[in-house]
């Protein structure tokens, strides 16, 4: 039996540093380069997108991400993996939709129609409400917020009873459900928000024509494309990692890996990892590096199995109850602490292990750069962790 190549934790950290543009000399000039290399940047918390990109630019700031998102449209906000909102390269959007979003949106539409029908609103009522929303948007070239749409489309202000007879029964606004569905399907898309770059009050505009539901073959091809893009940035990785990141079923993950002609590799813990066949040569260890990355940063959230860069003993401080990572401090490919912004704007950090004088000096310099980037903006993560709460106070 042939011996599997070995890619140990040092190699994984070397790849992470270089491919996620965190090692010295790898910073990007433009936001598109960062988003392309990260494949997808969590967009649930608007601040994540801007701070994740800024941490990897030669001239840290938020203006270039605003340009890419709102002026040039070279990166797009789309629902994708695990039904979560991401910012992705524009050229990846079709594969994202065919591989992941279309199936999730179809399931969401089925649930919405069922819930609306249970409240006395049949499919015709829902179709009329959708048409009213899109008609309102067609007459607003600068876009409309959800609140503004509610003023123009009275159906959105109605509510339904969700989970009747269960412990989680609650009233849900029609607008919340319907606008989310139309956003998932791509019938309407988010544009520049009201307020600054941390605002989630986005203006909606009509989207491009919604593509037809992909065939099984089209879905499989798109999944292979997305898996290959992800492995090029995050490999080697396990089957579990890809299943967690994409939200696909195990059979879909295995088919996508087979379509990529991946090579099995031995990981440091003895487990089986997968890498693209032309990605087996070792990379040199980068020069020492530090980074302050935001909550939900794609590097911190890139894998299900994280022991090779996040010590299990640090997780209670840095991870919330749902498994979301808060703001993290990195040194040479490992998470060594967390950071927060205080009400007066100061960026403070706490190191959970002593990394030495060189690391402390580098982390302090990164904190000062981040403070300059934030300027007068105040950032509070949407998903807060114990360490972040304590530091912010």
Protein topology:
Blueprint: H1 9-19, H2 31-38, E1 41-42, H3 46-54, H4 63-72, E2 75-79, E3 85-89, H5 93-118, H6 123-138, H7 146-152, E4 159-162, E5 170-173, H8 174-185, E6 188-193, E7 202-206, H9 216-234, H10 239-246, H11 250-259, E8 263-266, E9 272-275, E10 290-293, H12 315-318, E11 328-331, E12 334-341, E13 347-351, H13 357-374, H14 386-392
Antiparallel strand pairs: 1-3, 2-3, 4-5, 6-7, 8-9, 10-11, 11-12, 12-13
InterPro entries: AlkZ-like (IPR009351)
Pfam families: AlkZ-like
Keywords: DNA-binding
Shape type: globular
Strand content: 15-25%
Alpha-carbon Rg, integer: 22 Å
State the total count of DSSP E strands.
Answer: 13
Mean pLDDT, all residues: 95
Number of helices: 14
Order of helices and strands: HHEHHEEHHHEEHEEHHHEEEHEEEHH
Main pleated-sheet profile: 4 strands, antiparallel
Helix and strand composition category: alpha+beta
Low-confidence parts: none
What is the helix content?
Answer: 40-55%
Measured distance between first and last alpha carbons: 58 Å
Order the strands across the largest sheet as they lie in space.
10-11-12-13
Organism: Kitasatospora saccharophila
GO molecular function, one term: DNA binding
InterPro entries: AlkZ-like
Keywords: DNA-binding
């Amino acid at each position: 039996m042939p011996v599997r190549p070995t890619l140990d934790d040092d190699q994984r950290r070397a790849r992470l540093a270089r491919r996620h543009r965190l090692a010295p000399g790898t910073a990007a000039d433009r936001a598109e380069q960062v988003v392309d290399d990260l494949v997808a940047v969590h967009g649930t918390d608007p601040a994540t997108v801007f701070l994740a990109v800024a941490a990897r630019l030669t001239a840290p700031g938020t203006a270039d991400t605003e340009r890419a998102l709102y002026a040039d449209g070279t990166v797009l906000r789309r629902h994708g993996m695990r039904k979560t909102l991401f910012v992705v390269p524009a050229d990846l959007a079709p594969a994202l939709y065919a591989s992941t979003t279309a199936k999730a949106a179809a399931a969401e539409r089925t649930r919405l129609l069922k819930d609306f029908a249970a409240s006395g609103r049949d499919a015709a009522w829902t179709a009329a409400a959708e048409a009213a929303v899109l008609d309102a948007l067609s007459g607003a070239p600068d876009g409309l917020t959800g609140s503004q749409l509610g003023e123009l489309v009275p159906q959105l202000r109605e509510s339904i009873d969700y989970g009747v007879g269960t412990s989680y029964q609650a009233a849900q606004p029609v607008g919340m459900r319907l606008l989310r569905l139309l956003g998932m399907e791509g019938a309407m898309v988010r544009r520049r928000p009201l307020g600054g770059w941390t605002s989630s009050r986005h203006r909606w505009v009509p989207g491009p024509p919604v593509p037809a539901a992909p065939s099984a073959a089209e879905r499989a091809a798109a999944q292979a494309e997305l898996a290959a893009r992800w492995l090029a940035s995050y490999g080697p990785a396990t089957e579990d990692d890809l299943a967690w990141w994409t939200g696909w079923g195990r059979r879909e993950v295995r088919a996508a890996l087979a379509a990529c002609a991946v090579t099995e590799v031995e990981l440091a813990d003895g487990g089986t990892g997968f890498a693209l066949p032309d990605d087996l040569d070792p990379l040199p260890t980068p020069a020492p590096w530090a980074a302050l990355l935001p909550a939900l940063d794609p590097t911190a959230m890139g894998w299900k199995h994280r022991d090779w860069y996040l010590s299990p003993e640090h997780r209670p401080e840095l991870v919330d109850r749902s498994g979301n990572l808060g703001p993290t401090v990195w040194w040479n490919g490992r998470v060594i602490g967390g950071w927060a912004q205080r009400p007066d704007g100061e960026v403070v950090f706490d190191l959970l292990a002593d990394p030495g004088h060189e690391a402390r000096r580098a982390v302090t310099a990164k904190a000062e750069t981040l403070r300059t980037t934030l300027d007068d903006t105040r950032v509070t993560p949407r998903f807060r962790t114990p360490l972040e709460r304590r530091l912010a106070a």
